[in-house]
Amino acid sequence: MIRVTLFEIGSFLLPFVLFMIWRRLSSRAPDAGRMPTLRLAAAGAASAIVMMLVLIVLDANRAGHAGERYVPPQNVDGRIIPGHFVPADDDVDEDDGDDGDGGDDEPSTGGGADDPQ
């Protein structure tokens, strides 16, 4: 969790740091009054392409594939088992929908107030 938080903070601060570096470097340049639009556009396009590639790689490593299902994190004997993907036909220890009444999940047919018996 701390890694995710640090990644988000770093992602937020990166543009400000790059802007600060650019300002310091451009103030020392002899032609500081002229805006290098072509260089800035190329740097922005390159940054966008790199970010797209990073997102594609992260998605490919973390996402499930066709024919898999996600098993959410579970607390087993006081230990947290992280969420993971399993093949769809595997039987995994999960809540089977039993509501604790010991019967099947079909509606009851007797004993109701609307029952004419």
UniProtKB/TrEMBL annotation:
<feature type="region of interest" description="Disordered">
    <location>
        <begin position="69"/>
        <end position="117"/>
    </location>
</feature>
<feature type="compositionally biased region" description="Acidic residues">
    <location>
        <begin position="88"/>
        <end position="107"/>
    </location>
</feature>
<dbReference type="InterPro" id="IPR046093">
    <property type="entry name" value="DUF6111"/>
</dbReference>
<protein>
    <submittedName>
        <fullName>Uncharacterized protein</fullName>
    </submittedName>
</protein>
<dbReference type="Pfam" id="PF19606">
    <property type="entry name" value="DUF6111"/>
</dbReference>
